[in-house]
Structures are given as C-alpha cells and as structure tokens.
C-alpha cells in the first residue's frame, strides 16, 4: 500500500470509536489481574455482554504483544454480535471493526486495516462524520468498558448520556448503578440506593448489582434483607468472581471472616492470577489472627497451634500475592509488620523492573521506608528515582551492547 494510504489511515484511525481511542489506561497502569477477571466474565454473561468482554480482551492481548490472540478474540466478538440478529448488531460491530483496524495497522497489515475502516464508513456514511456516530448503544458499550477498567467517573458520564435517549435500558441502568455505587464509596460523593433498585427491577438477572444492593442495605442496618439477597445471588451465580468477592465483603463487614475466606477462595479457583483476591484472603487471615491474640488462654496448646497455622497461611498468601503482581511493591503497605517483608523488598530491588514501572516502584519503596524510619539505602534509592528514566534506559542499552 502506498505511503499516501498510510497517511490517510493515520488520519482516520483516531476518529474510530473503539478501545484504542478511549484512553482506558494510563501508561503502565493496566491491572495485572484484569485479563483473568475479563475471562471469568466471558464464562458468566449473555452473548451481548460476552462480545463486550471479548473486545476488551482483544485490547488487553494487543497491549501484551499477542496480536494473533487479539484477532481471535475480535473474531469471537464479531460472531456473538452477528448472532444476536437485532437492529443494533451492526452499530455495535463498529467497536469490533475499529479494534480490527487498529490491530492490523499496528501489525503493518495496511490493506486489512483499510478494509475494516471501509466497513465502519459504510455504516456511518449517512452521518456528518463518515467514521464515527453518536448513539446510545455505543455510549453504553464505552461505559461498560471504562467500568471494567476502573474509570468509573467517565463510565458514569457514558451511561448518563445513553440513558438520556433510552431511560429504561436495562444494561445502561445496571452500568449506571454500578458506577454510582463505586463513586459513592468516596466520602465526598453522595450515593442513592434507588439506582440499584431500578437496575434490579429492569434486569433481575444481574446478580452483581444484587450483591451491591445487599452491601448498601447492610450499611443501612437492613442486614437480614441484605443477606437474603446475597444468598439468592450466590445460588444463581455460584461461580461469578465479582459476585463472590462482593459477597465476601458482605460477610467480612458482618464479622463472619471464615465465610468471607471461603467465598474468596472459591473465587480464586476461577481466576488464579488475581493478586488482589490473594491479598484479601491474606487480610482476612490476619484479622482472625489478631482476634485470637486478644482472646483466650495465652498458654493453651490448641490456641498456639491455631495461631501457628494462621501465621503459616498468612505468609503463604503473602507470597502468592507478591508472585502474581506486576508491581509487587503495591502490596507492601498492607504487609509491613511481617518480618519477611524486608527480604521481599530486597528481592524486588535486586530485579530489573520494566521502565514504565521503575519510578513508581522505587518511589513507593522510598515512601514506605521513610514512613517506617528504615533509612538504609534510602538516599541511594531516592537518587535513583530522580535519575531521568530515558538516561537509565540508555545506560541499560549501552550495557547490553557491550556484552
């Protein structure tokens, strides 16, 4: 393909509504367990929602350098959308086609990229912009994608825009309720339970929204009704990771730590690389250990045995948490009272970290060391943080060339 066509593609691609133009992640900020979470969702959702997850999974695979796997995910999304046989299928395919165009462009397959750009143009040509269009279906699609990536404020804006035209749409209503719930957990935000209730009324099959409402009811003192909803959600979605995690949060708040651990471990069977779940199990074991330390006969052999087992489990889950994190230091603020944490620090410091994470890793280390008055190597580490990243990269490159 000629250079003129390449330039044309470079002008058109940023106009497409898809994952490549939504700015979903800041540099290096993609959660390490996101792929596992998305894969779990694929197993527990209907066709339309699965297609949304396959589109996101394709983008994740692309970011990990797995172009072939990314294209396979887009193929799955395309099949699912076409199988719906509804009036909106072609519109929702715009996101999938846009992703195809971007991935083929990055692969250097410009003719294939152009073919998908042409598909988008055929649908959008009746609008002012031949490569993009405004419609509630695309706003809803973007909202769910942003929600899954933790961009809750932007997700809420997408759902608000979609609901202006389709106020009774069950998918948008559920997305809006989830976004409001997450934002409502910040003290400066106001949250209304009405959004959750409306979402359940429009879509009684959304078990995740149901457990969010149960958590809200628990906060409002309606524990019995909240637990009834939790049990109903667990019965209808026994293996859905996000439902299990929020149900575990419910029982943790109730004080039933054993039940919380049971649910988290069940969730881990579906998403074995989710470091945050391992961290949650770790924290629950620590809470049980602290409770035990405050009660009972200090010299009881049974109590000592139980405490020893809890310490063993705590350390086991700490190691599992660290092994599964792209940035292990993110975990350490919760683990500082463990005697092995210093050794773990040194383990991470001794490894060569990816450039995009270096500053964050070492700055967290410095901050934690400073906070806990552990000054060894602090000055050297702070010097390292101030050392410009591109200069470090040049030094590494020079070292590679010399070997």
Q: How would you sum up this structure in a few lines?
A:
TPR repeats lie at residues 241-274. 71% of the residues lie in helices and 0% in strands.
Give structural notes.
There is one protein chain. The protein is mainly alpha-helical. Among the domains are: 1-133, Tetratricopeptide repeat domain (Serine Threonine Protein Phosphatase 5, Tetratricopeptide repeat); 349-403, no CATH class. It contains 20 helices and no strands. The protein has helices at residues 3-12, 34-44, 47-63, 67-83, 89-107, 110-124, 136-148, 152-165, 170-184, 194-202, 207-219, 223-236, 241-254, 257-268, 275-294, 301-323, 341-349, 355-371, 378-386, 389-402. The longest helix has 23 residues, at 301-323. The radius of gyration is 24 Å and the shape is globular. The model is unreliable at 327-403 (pLDDT under 50). Keywords: Repeat, TPR repeat.
List the helices and strands and how they pair.
Layout: H1 3-12, H2 34-44, H3 47-63, H4 67-83, H5 89-107, H6 110-124, H7 136-148, H8 152-165, H9 170-184, H10 194-202, H11 207-219, H12 223-236, H13 241-254, H14 257-268, H15 275-294, H16 301-323, H17 341-349, H18 355-371, H19 378-386, H20 389-402
Helix pairs in contact: 1-6, 2-3, 3-4, 3-5, 4-5, 5-6, 7-8, 7-9, 8-9, 9-10, 10-11, 11-12, 11-13, 12-13, 13-14, 14-15, 15-16, 18-19
Number of strands: 0
Mind telling me the CATH class of one domain?
Mainly Alpha
- Indicate the overall shape: globular
- By CATH, the superfamily of one domain comes out as Tetratricopeptide repeat domain
- Class derived from helix and strand content: mainly alpha
Poorly predicted regions: 327-403
> What is the ordering of alpha helices and beta strands?
HHHHHHHHHHHHHHHHHHHH
Query: How many helical stretches?
Result: 20
Strand content: under 5%
Q: Rg, please?
A: 24 Å
Mean pLDDT: 78
| CATH level-3 fold name of one domain | Serine Threonine Protein Phosphatase 5, Tetratricopeptide repeat
What is the helical fraction, as a range of percent?
over 70%
Distance between the amino and carboxyl termini: 39 Å
- The CATH architecture category of one domain equals Alpha Horseshoe
Family: Belongs to the IFIT family.
InterPro entries: TPR-like_helical_dom_sf (IPR011990), TPR_rpt (IPR019734)
Keywords: Repeat, TPR repeat
Pfam family, one: TPR_8
């Amino acid at each position: 393909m000629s250079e003129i066509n390449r330039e044309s593609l470079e002008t058109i691609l940023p106009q497409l509504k898809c994952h490549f133009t939504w700015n979903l992640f800041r540099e290096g900020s993609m959660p390490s367990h996101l792929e596992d979470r998305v894969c779990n969702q694929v197993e527990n959702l209907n066709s339309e929602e699965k297609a949304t997850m396959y589109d996101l999974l394709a983008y994740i695979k692309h970011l990990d350098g797995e172009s072939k796997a990314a294209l396979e995910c887009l193929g799955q999304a395309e099949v699912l959308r076409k199988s719906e046989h509804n009036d909106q299928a072609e519109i929702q395919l715009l996101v999938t086609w846009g992703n195809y165009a971007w991935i083929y462009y990055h692969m250097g397959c410009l003719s294939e990229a152009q073919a998908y750009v042409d598909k988008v143009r055929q649908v959008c040509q009746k609008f002012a912009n031949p490569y993009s269009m405004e419609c509630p279906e695309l706003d809803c699609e973007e909202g769910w994608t942003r929600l899954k990536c933790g961009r809750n404020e932007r997700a809420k804006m997408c759902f608000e825009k979609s609901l202006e035209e389709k106020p009774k749409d069950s998918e948008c209503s559920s997305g809006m309720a989830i976004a409001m719930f997450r934002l409502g957990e910040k003290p400066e935000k106001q949250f209304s339970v009405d959004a959750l209730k409306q979402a359940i009324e429009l879509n009684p099959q959304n078990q995740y929204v149901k457990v969010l409402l149960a958590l809200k009811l628990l906060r409002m003192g309606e524990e019995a009704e909240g637990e009834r909803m939790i049990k109903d959600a667990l019965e209808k979605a026994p293996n859905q990771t996000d439902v299990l995690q929020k149900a575990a949060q419910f029982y943790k708040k109730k004080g039933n730590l054993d039940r919380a651990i049971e649910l988290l471990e069940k969730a881990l069977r579906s998403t074995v690389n989710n470091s945050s779940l391992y961290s949650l199990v770790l924290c629950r074991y620590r809470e049980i250990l602290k409770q035990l330390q405050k009660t009972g006969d200090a010299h009881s052999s049974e109590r000592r045995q139980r405490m020893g087992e809890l310490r063993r489990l705590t350390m086991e889950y700490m190691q599992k948490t660290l092994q599964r994190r792209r940035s292990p230091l993110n975990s350490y603020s919760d683990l500082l009272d463990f005697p092995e944490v210093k050794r773990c620090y040194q383990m991470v410091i001794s490894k060569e970290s990816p450039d995009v994470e270096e500053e964050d890793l070492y700055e967290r280390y410095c901050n934690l060391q400073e906070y806990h008055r552990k000054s060894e190597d602090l000055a050297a580490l702070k010097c390292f943080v101030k050392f410009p990243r591109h200069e470090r990269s040049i030094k590494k490159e020079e070292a590679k060339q010399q070997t």
